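User: Show me a protein chain along with its predicted structure.
Assistant: Here is one chain, sequence first, then structure tokens.
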Amino acid sequence: MLPVPLSYSSILCPSSLVRNRASFRSRTQIAANYWGKKLAFMPHDVFDHLPPLLKELVLSGNQLRSFNWGRLYLLAWLELLDLGSNLLTTVPRMLSNCTQTLRFNLTRNQISKLTKDFLRDVTSLQYLDLSYTNLKNIQASSFLDSAFKHLWELWLSGNHFLCTCNARWFMWWNNQTTVYIPHLFTDVTCTSPKAHLGHCVVMVDLHSCELDYLGIGLYTFSTLITFLLLNLILKTGLHSRWRSGRVAA
């Protein structure tokens, strides 16, 4: 979990930003802190009034249910975006289209899934916190290998991961990645099915999934063969009866 920075050049609020647009643009302020302000929303044009050289934007500890991802490009120098402890349910469709921030904190929100292209074309991200966000599974398309060239720390603790065969890619990825995942063996655990409840994601036996799929394949194949044989037998029987009938006539 990202620590809240201890000092900022000033503490801002959206209303003051709107009233003092000119004065803020003239400053060389590099950090803005909205932490714990009980914000339920942000004005649509708030990013137009933030200092253009802003490097740190802290919005954690609020009540935000949505976020205007499409306006983040206005903060071209942003290095830290902290949205932890809010009520967000979605992430940007494609993070690289919004920001090239180095540190991104989404801990303790209500995000049950990531978008298909979440980390596509991301080249600068170093720290990502997705802990305690109600994630159930992560697809391969959301975690492209190219996004992890610079990422050195990824938080996934406290989520509700489904350790079924449909999630085998994510379980395999956890075993293969070189990215540092804090508390991987203690807090990145399965909540379903019951057989794996509380087990570490990386300890789930993927071989059992391969056996399951092999069993399904064999069952399907044997069912198909049985159907073809029965069909052949029925056709042969009908043909024999037809010929017997003609001979008798």
